């Protein structure tokens, strides 16, 4: 039976769910939450995936880092973020049809967050006794952006990437980094709602095209719905994890 515990890896406080407590894990899955959510927002995905894939995921370790930024002073008690977002500016861009400009955004804290995540991931791998070839990273919304950015800058790529409702960001840097090293052998599960009012569906398509153009194998899961995680996308993520 799975059991959760709190643990700090590097600079990040995390929730850890082991499929079989006391048994060395055979895979590591790291999922990061989105802007404004609590650090435990995605934790329920672990038991759901273990239940759906009981035999295959019985020895998988899931880790859910809490973003470093506390949003209490922004009027979101309990909410956290990987970097600040000007929600008024985002709403104005949406109203003016300029959300596609997000692709050129370079969040000021992104390099700092990338380093924090990479340091934490290194500690997770050492604790689990696993390598990147047994590791899947990903997340939802802003958490998907964090892990996509980290994946591109890691010296050794993870076996898989999960992008739930993420988007293309820092396009110039992401393209240059992907072109330099290539993404051959990287398996990706990506999903996005066609009616997403937060991050444009068209930008998700362009992220998919970018990843594919540099050699990644993308399992694309569009759906009719808003900014969320669909059931089929979760199943696709489970299949990716079990195949590692």
Quick summary:
The chain is an alpha/beta fold.
Span of the ends, CA to CA: 22 Å
The counted number of beta strands is 10
Please write the string of helix (H) and strand (E) elements: EEEHEEEHHEHEHEHEH
The value of Rg in angstroms is: 17 Å
Individual helix count: 7
Uncertain stretches: none
Q: What structural class is derived from the secondary structure elements? A: alpha/beta
General shape: globular
- Roughly how much helix do the residues carry, as a percent range? 25-40%
What is the assembly state of the chains in this entry?
A: single chain
What are the salient characteristics of this protein?
single chain, 244 residues, alpha/beta, eight-stranded mixed β-sheet, two-stranded antiparallel sheet, 10 strands, globular
What order do the helices and strands come in, and which of them pair?
Elements: E1 3-9, E2 12-18, E3 27-32, H1 45-52, E4 60-65, E5 69-70, E6 80-81, H2 87-95, H3 110-128, E7 135-140, H4 142-153, E8 160-164, H5 171-181, E9 187-193, H6 201-213, E10 217-223, H7 231-243
Parallel strand pairs: 3-4, 3-7, 7-8, 8-9, 9-10
Antiparallel strand pairs: 1-2, 2-4, 5-6
Structure description:
- The model has no long low-confidence stretch (mean pLDDT 91).
- The chain has seven helices and ten strands.
- The longest helix is centred in the middle third of the chain and has 19 residues, at 110-128.
- It is an alpha/beta fold and 244 residues long.
- The protein is 35% helix and 23% strand.
- The chain starts with a strand and ends with a helix.
- It has helices at 45-52, 87-95, 110-128, 142-153, 171-181, 201-213, 231-243; strands at 3-9, 12-18, 27-32, 60-65, 69-70, 80-81, 135-140, 160-164, 187-193, 217-223.
- Helix 3 crosses helix 4 (142-153).
- The protein has an eight-stranded mixed beta sheet, with helices on both faces. The chain has a two-stranded antiparallel sheet with strand order 5-6.
């Amino acid at each position: 039976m799975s059991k959760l515990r709190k643990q700090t890896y590097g600079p990040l406080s995390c929730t850890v769910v082991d499929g079989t407590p006391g048994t060395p894990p055979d895979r590591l899955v790291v999922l990061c939450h989105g802007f404004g959510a609590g650090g435990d927002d995605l934790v329920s995905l672990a038991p759901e995936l273990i239940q759906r894939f009981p035999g295959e995921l019985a020895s998988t370790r899931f880790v859910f880092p809490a973003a470093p930024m506390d949003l209490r002073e922004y009027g979101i008690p309990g909410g956290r973020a990987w970097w600040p977002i000007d929600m008024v500016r985002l709403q104005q861009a949406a109203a003016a049809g300029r959300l596609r400009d997000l692709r050129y955004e370079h969040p000021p804290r992104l390099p700092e967050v990338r380093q924090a995540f990479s340091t934490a991931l290194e500690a997770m791998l050492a604790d689990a006794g696993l390598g990147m070839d047994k590791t899947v990273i990903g997340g939802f919304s802003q958490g998907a952006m964090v892990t996509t950015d980290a994946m591109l800058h890691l010296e050794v790529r993870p076996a898989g990437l999960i992008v739930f409702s993420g988007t293309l960001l820092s396009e110039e840097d992401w393209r240059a980094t992907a072109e330099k090293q290539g993404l051959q052998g990287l398996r990706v599960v990506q999903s996005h709602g066609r009616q997403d009012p937060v991050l444009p569906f068209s930008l998700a398509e362009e992220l998919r095209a970018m990843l594919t153009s540099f050699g990644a194998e993308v399992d694309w899961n569009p759906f009719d719905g808003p900014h969320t995680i669909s059931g089929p996308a979760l199943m696709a993520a489970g299949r990716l994890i079990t195949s590692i």
